[in-house]
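hiii so my PI (J.) wants the whole complex modelled not just the main chain, which honestly fair. so below is everything: two entries, each one labled with what it is. i double checked the lines twice but i was tired so who knows lol
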Amino acid sequence: MSFPWAEHYSPTHPLMKWVDDRLPLPRFVYNAVGAGYPVPRNLNYFWNFGVLSGVALTIQIVTGIILAMHYGSNAGVAFDSVEHIMRDVNGGWLLRYAHANGASFFFIVVYLHIFRGLFYGSYKAPREMVWLLGLVIFLLMMATAFMGYVLPWGQMSFWGAKVITGLFGAIPVVGEPIQTWLLGGFAPGNAALNRFFSLHFLLPFVIAAVIILHIWALHIPGSSNPTGVEVKGPQDTVPFHPYYTAKDGFGLGVFLIVYCLVLFFGPNALGHPDNYIPANPMSTPAHIVPEWYFWPFYAILRAFTFDFFFIPAKLLGVMAMFASILLLFVLPWLDTSPVRSGNYRPLFKKFFWLLVIDVLILGYCGGAPAAEPFVMISQVAAAYYFAHFLIILPIVSRIERPLPLPNSITASVLHQDSYEGEREALPGMGADTQPAQPGLAH
Amino acid sequence: MVRLLAALVGIFFSGMLLYSFGSGAVAYISEPPAPTAEHEFHLHPKEVDWSFNGPLGHYDKVQLQRGFQVFKEVCSACHSLRLVAFRDLKALGYEDPEIKAIAKNWAIKAPDVDPKTGEASTRPAVPADHFPMPFANDVAARAANNNAIPPDLSLMTKARHDGSNYVYSLITGFQPQPKELLKEFPDAKTPEGLHYNPYFANLNIAMAPPLTAEGQVTYGPGQPKPTVDQMAKDVAAFLTWTAEPKMENRKSAGLAVVFFLLVATVLAYMSYQTIWAGKKH
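here's the output for the full assembly
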């Protein structure tokens, strides 16, 4: 499952030899994230976010397990147990703020990871399975984050749970029984809180399992790269360790600095003040908003204000919101351009940046009150979102004339050198690689 | 097939949305939403230069003690502080015997059970007790306060946007209803029993002005003059501490952590450069 020139694990220490002969776990790690995994030499910093997502998940699991030792998943004590953690548990404030902000940073790095995949066409053959498994992880993350936000049992927890489970109530005929079944009652209560806690504890481990599949599927073709040109020979790759462990180590440091600045100096900046008010079924908050990472989808949900014959607007909104994520599952078959990287797709690039701005606008509208002009803005933005993926992208793939691709990864790297005027012969260049033709790349 | 289905779904959703946008825009232009009194007259909290602002900010313990005094003599008559224990006051610089005395002399007694009869009874509070609730239950709280429950103050500065400034602005923001408001919105007259306050979300708050006169609370010698403004600042600072008692630990730990990470990141960058030296990428 790797390139033929991948380095082979040959332990020198007798103990490692002994272990490897009986359980080849060291070999497995070596081939997965060690020197045994050849990686394109030209990856930029956007290729750091997969590792950072893994780190973010680890932070969430470690802090979460300790928080669970002090948390009480009972509607009567949940809110106070969180405050007990904040006030009386040693270092509890650190654990809780690390966990709450860790969720936000998990989404930040995952969104950047998805951004990278979308721009560089990482979802295209032969990496469709990597993309599909990634989307499964994303859906699991959303479910986990939603249920986690319910656990402190503040006002936004309660009303968020009510709104989101109410989405299922929009399904005709069976909707309300399903909603009641999901909640274990007619409104969020102790039954809902308990099952959400149980699932919130379970799902991260499911995510970890799907991540293993995600990495496994990635290692079949190997990592993509910014040119989108596949690896052609040993000169195109470097061993993951030490090259990318070192580069990712630096990226990890930058990530942790930003994360800690928020964690220690603005831990409530990403949260909503209403969640410091205990849940009260008798008092509805003025604006019910989910956490920021759901805002684009929330804006799509609220953008539907008209019934379509027999389909009520609410159901349309629910369908559109789910569709906005599910359509990503068919993306590899909508974008038929054989060119992966957006760098060589001039027309795609324009629409892509429009999409990025569009999603940011949707996000802003999703966090704003459900009033004009935000509803109108989100209607236009949501219309573009669907049109982009379902209509524009297939057409662009068909009519676009991509720029000429470099002959190989090494050629593109060397071309940059010659461009800067410091020509250099690269040792070990294979026979199958030609130097870049002038004027081909860039 | 996939692309055909996708295009149909895309046309359906985008079409619905653009149709909704069109009719929404027509309605918006023909009938612009009427402004509301809340929208026109609500004010954002006033900015105060708190000692705890910024990454190096810390609580002014003397101010917190004054704020506690205001809470004790004014706020605690109606508002609870149920998440804070008397023992926590140690962070304000009180000594153990002082805290013992504060708990013992607290106007509201701690609930207890008579050890002989098992009947509900009360006893003087001890440092381990949380601040006792001023009302037996929500019904009693409503009955005594014009049908509004005085909210618990433990987390107030975190439960409102820009909380410390909000508490200060709200306490000092009571005023007669502006004439322009009544002229523009004759229906928005402050109802009987409520009080106009532009810092409150819907402009009319059930709480009567709690601090009305200079010297309402007598500060000890060497302290600033107990003006309404000063007392409001002090109690807002105290409530910032009750909501975030570990803020100082958090900020000092944060400085150490970020310093460590900066050093580690520089080292990581240097090793990245060393390992990649001579490797064009």
